[in-house]
Structure formats: C-alpha cells, structure tokens
Amino acid sequence: MRYCDTLARMIHYCQEDYANASPALWFEIDDLLNRVWPPAEPPRTLTLTPVHRLDLRPHSFFARVDGRLLAYAAILHKTARHASADWRIAGLSCVCSDPAHRRLGLGAGVVSKATRWLLASDVDLGLFTCDPALVPFYVRRGWQPARDLVVVGNGTLGAIRGDAAGKVTLLRLISPRAHAHAADFCRGEFNLALPDRQFW
Ligand SMILES: CC(C)(COP(=O)(O)OP(=O)(O)OC[C@H]1O[C@@H](n2cnc3c(N)ncnc32)[C@H](O)[C@@H]1OP(=O)(O)O)[C@@H](O)C(=O)NCCC(=O)NCCS
Q1: Which of 19, 50, 104, 200 is the most buried (most CB within 10 A)?
Q2: Ligand 1 pocket, residues with Cβ under 6 angstroms
Q3: Each residue of 62-74: b (16+ CB within 10 Å) or e?
Q4: Distance, CA 34 to ligand 1 centroid (Å)?
Q5: What is the CATH number of the domain that holds 74?
C-alpha cells in the first residue's frame, strides 16, 4: 500500500463551532497557526485568546492524523450590504496545513469539507481572497475567481483592499437570490464593513 493511501486512512476530519470549542482545541489551532505564520515575537505566556472574531460566528474544520491537528480552515460569517441589498456572506479564513505535512492532501481535505458545509448552509454567497498561485487549488474545490471584484475591509480611505495586497477574489454563489443577482458580483468593490484594519 502506498504511503498516501495509508495516510488517507489515518486522517480524521472534524468540525466544530469555534466559540464553543474546548480550550484545548483553541490551543491546538493557535499552535498550528503559529507554526504556519510565526509571530514576529513569541508570546511570553500562553493565553486563551481567540484567533477568530467571535461575532463572525467562526466554524472550524480540521484534520487530525494520529491525533495531531495538522490542517485547518475556518468559515466566518456576516451580513454585508452590496448593490442595495443585504447579503449573508461567509468566507474561508486561516486555511493552512502543517509545514512538515504539505502536499499530502490535508489542505484540500479541509477546504473540501468546509466548502461542502457552506453549500448546505443558509448563506447567500461565499467570498474571500487568496494569493494568485492558489487560485487553481480553490477552483478544484468549487470556487470561482472573480478577478474584477475587489474585496475591501470597509469604506474608509485606509481600508485593507484585496487588490492592493495582490490577492484574487474567490466567489461561490449559493442561494437562488445570489444566482439571480450574479451580475452584481462580477466587478466593482465588495465592502465587508469590518472594523478598521480587519479583513478575512
Ligand atoms: C495552501 C496550503 C493550505 C495547501 O495545503 P496542502 O496540505 O499542502 O495541500 P494539498 O496537499 O491538499 O494540495 C492540494 C492541491 O493544491 C496544490 N498546492 C498545494 N500547495 C500549493 C501552493 N503553495 N501553490 C500552488 N498549489 C499548491 C497541490 O499541488 C494540490 O493539487 P491538486 O488539487 O491537483 O491535488 C498550504 O500550503 C499552506 O498552509 N500554506 C501556507 C498558508 C497559506 O498560504 N494558506 C492559504 C491562505 S488563502
């Protein structure tokens, strides 16, 4: 049996409402994110600080191998106004896999699980940004690039902008209402209406 087949049998995919997850899971997620995106200065003491804004109703998807949490993705939710209508939107955030366990299908696994869960939810559309090199990775998991739609953190002058950060917008229309208004999501700006200096 090939290593990949053996590994596939050992992967356990799980999901949990982040806000109600155990402190142990919060630490595990924090630990993985710190390995993937090492902080400039390591924290002096371990504190139980949420890695997601809880008002965005984060839902966590993760992969364990031999009990170790090795890949992660979160779905964040909010309502945003766009083209004179309110939309229930959700975005992928903190998608990552353990640096020592890349290219083994773990990242694809959590993104597929999260995307499937999103498609069965009551959200109107999914929307987030990624580096251009990762567009094919997300397209193969059901997302479409919307290259002329720019995601902005909010409407202020200094807001974080996807285009300024060199990111590509990925979109997935979900509800019949979103499909009926598909033309509204082809170009222009989509304002997430987040507080200053925030993005997803
Ligand atoms: C991006 C990331 C999650 C991929 O995780 P992974 O476990 O290595 O991915 P997988 O093994 O499941 O690979 C899935 C596919 O993506 C491709 N892929 C993986 N990493 C890639 C990369 N950095 N660039 C381009 N393609 C990549 C693989 O070739 C594979 O192709 P396939 O769809 O034909 O099978 C991981 O590299 C990572 O954590 N990167 C740092 C954090 C990051 O950039 N996150 C994305 C935020 S939007």
Answers
A1: 200
A2: 36, 71, 95-97, 102-108, 130, 133-134, 137, 140
A3: bbbbeeebbbbbb
A4: 17
A5: 3.40.630.30
pLDDT of 42 strictly over 90:
no
Mean pLDDT calculated for residue range 136-156: 97
CA of 103 to the centre of ligand 1 (A): 6
- φ/ψ (deg, to 5) at 163: -65, -40
> Is 196 inside a domain boundary?
no
Nearest CA to ligand 1 atom 35: 105
Q: What is the pLDDT of residue 5?
A: 72
pTM over 0.85: yes
Distance from residue 105's CA to the centre of ligand 1 (Å): 8
Q: Which domain holds residue 65?
A: 3-191
Q: Is there a domain that residue 200 lies in?
A: no
Domain count, the chain: 1
In a domain, 199, yes or no: no
**Helix (H) or strand (E) segment spanning residue 7:** helix 3-10
Does 198 fall in a domain?
no
**Which candidate, 55, 64, 52, places its Cα nearest to that of 13?**
64
